[in-house]
């Protein structure tokens, strides 16, 4: 009798556990179906047909239509015929809404940058620091063309600040074409808000080591710089790499400075370039940077790889130069260019373009600085503005063909310098 009662109690407990387990399965199944339905709706909203303009999605459907149109043009070929360029693949609200007669101060300075899709995750922190118009040229190859198209559209769709300020341009090989990503539902179904897009980009980071792109494809850095530059109508442009960060408040400080002086079309404004240990937080002000510099956590850009490439900046003079106030930007001193200086600078949009024959590693920026010198430009170093590269540049991080590419581009640079004599016959300056 006692044993029978125990068995009955056990059966009751077991039955209760089975019912709970069954209810949990039903609940999980419901959640899964609900989540799947929600994901299908989000994907339909993101990449689906743009004909139905209802439910308050007119603006986002218009964005969808603009992307479809940009892709339908098939892009244009670069001068070499090796690359296909989709200029203004996605336009920001800032660019779209610019009208004749608008406040000229709103379009004084823009930032232009370039990257592959595996470095695009840096855009989040870069825009958080910059908070002004930004033009991004992306190089994609193979399957990354489709991936890049979908991800940059998702960024512009879900991220309000990117919608407001960032213009995207896409460059791929001439034999490749970008297409609207509506057939990739399963691959992109997890994109549901701005953080989720950057999470997806994070999973794609560091796919390639430096310039070692699969298929032995060359990274056309100077073409990308020109595309990004050409994607903005601003009077002045700062061109930097995607993994660099400008000092805080640079935009408004430069605006105040440029409005208080006579503009000169033959002057560029140099921002001393540094690199910082990966673990350190990016400095916002000169005072923060100098403090890190003095303890070796920040050092001149390329100090280990090519100290001569930045030495003419005269870091000692800049670090010790007096700043009249935390919000005041001014020219600290002016320098004459010397080989092999490759400064980062803010320049008028009229400065010569980068020579697109230079690809991969070596001489791509030096060649342009050299031309500025021959063309008669002055290099004015700004008192408290700077750029910082994420991480120390060290020998071991570079791809296997770096030295081979550098040697090839060195020969190209000699030819380039000879060409400048013909291009600027009246100039007495030489590189």
Automatic annotation (TrEMBL):
It catalyses: 3-O-[beta-D-Xyl-(1->4)-Rib-ol-P-Rib-ol-P-3-beta-D-GalNAc-(1->3)-beta-D-GlcNAc-(1->4)-(O-6-P-alpha-D-Man)]-Thr-[protein] + UDP-alpha-D-glucuronate = 3-O-[beta-D-GlcA-(1->3)-beta-D-Xyl-(1->4)-Rib-ol-P-Rib-ol-P-3-beta-D-GalNAc-(1->3)-beta-D-GlcNAc-(1->4)-(O-6-P-alpha-D-Man)]-Thr-[protein] + UDP + H(+). This is Beta-1,4-glucuronyltransferase 1. The keyword Glycosyltransferase applies. Pathway: Protein modification; protein glycosylation. It is a single-pass type II membrane protein. The keyword Cell division does not apply. GO terms for cellular component: Golgi membrane. The lineage of its organism: Eukaryota, Metazoa, Chordata, Craniata, Vertebrata. Pfam families: Glyco_transf_49 (PF13896). Belongs to the glycosyltransferase 49 family. Keywords: Glycoprotein, Glycosyltransferase, Golgi apparatus, Manganese, Membrane, Metal-binding, Signal-anchor, Transferase, Transmembrane, Transmembrane helix. Its main location: Golgi. Its cofactor is Mn(2+). InterPro entries: B4GAT1 (IPR043189). It is found in: Golgi apparatus membrane. One of its GO terms (molecular function) is metal ion binding. GO terms for biological process: muscle cell development; protein O-linked glycosylation via mannose.
């Amino acid at each position: 009798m006692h044993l029978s009662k125990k068995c009955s109690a056990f059966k009751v407990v077991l039955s209760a556990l089975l019912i709970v387990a069954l209810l949990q399965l039903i609940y999980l199944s419901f959640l899964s179906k609900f989540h799947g339905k929600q994901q299908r709706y989000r994907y339909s909203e993101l990449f689906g047909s743009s004909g139905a303009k209802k439910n308050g999605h007119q603006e986002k459907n218009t964005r969808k239509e603009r992307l479809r149109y940009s892709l339908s043009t098939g892009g244009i070929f670069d001068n070499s015929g090796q690359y296909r360029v989709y200029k203004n693949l996605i336009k920001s609200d800032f660019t779209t809404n610019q009208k004749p007669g608008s406040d000229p101060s709103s379009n004084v300075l823009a930032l232009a940058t370039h990257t592959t899709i595996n470095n695009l995750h840096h855009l989040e922190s870069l825009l958080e620091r910059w908070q002004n118009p930004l033009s991004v040229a992306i190089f994609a190859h193979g399957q990354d063309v489709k991936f890049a198209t979908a991800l940059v559209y998702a960024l512009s769709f879900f991220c309000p600040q990117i919608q407001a300020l960032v213009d995207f341009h896409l460059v791929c090989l001439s034999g490749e074409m970008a297409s609207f990503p509506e057939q990739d539902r399963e691959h992109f179904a997890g994109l549901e808000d701005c953080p989720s897009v950057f999470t997806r980009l994070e999973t794609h980071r560091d796919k390639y080591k430096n310039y070692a792109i699969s298929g032995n494809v060359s990274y056309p850095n100077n073409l990308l710089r020109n595309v990004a530059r050409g994607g903005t109508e601003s009077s002045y442009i700062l061109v930097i790499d995607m993994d660099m960060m400008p000092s805080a408040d640079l935009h408004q400080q430069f605006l105040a400075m440029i409005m208080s002086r006579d503009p000169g079309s033959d002057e560029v404004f140099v921002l001393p370039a540094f690199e910082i240990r990966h673990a350190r937080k990016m400095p916002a002000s000169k005072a923060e940077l100098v403090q890190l510099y003095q303890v070796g956590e920040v050092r001149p850009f390329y100090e280990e790889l090519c100290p001569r490439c930045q030495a003419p900046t005269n870091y000692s003079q800049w670090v010790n130069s007096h700043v009249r106030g935390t919000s005041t930007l001014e020219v600290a001193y002016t320098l004459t260019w010397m080989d092999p200086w490759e400064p980062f600078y803010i320049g008028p949009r009229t400065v010569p373009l980068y020579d697109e024959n230079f690809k991969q590693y070596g001489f791509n920026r030096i060649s342009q600085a050299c031309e500025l010198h021959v063309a008669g430009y002055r290099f004015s170093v700004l008192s408290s503005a700077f750029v910082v590269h994420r991480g120390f540049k060290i020998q071991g991080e570079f791809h296997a063909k770096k030295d081979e590419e550098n040697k090839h581009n060195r020969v190209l640079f000699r030819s380039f310098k000879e060409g400048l004599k013909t291009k600027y016959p009246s100039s007495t300056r030489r590189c």
